[in-house]
Amino acid sequence: MTLDAAVEPPRELLPRHIAIVMDGNGRWAQQRSLMRTAGHREGAKAVRRIVKACSERGIEVLTLFAFSSENWRRPRPEVEVLMNLFLTTLRREIRRLHTANVRMRFIGDRSAFAATLQDYIAKAEQRTAANTGLTLVIAANYGGRWDIAQASRRVAEEAAAGRLRPGEVTVELLHQYTCLADLPEPDLFIRTGGEQRISNFLLWQLAYTELYFTDRLWPDFDVEALDAACAAFASRQRRFGQTSEQVAGVADA
Ligand code: IPE
Ligand code: IPE
Ligand code: MG
Question: Helices 76-99 and 115-128: crossing angle, nearest 10°?
Answer without folding.
Answer: 20
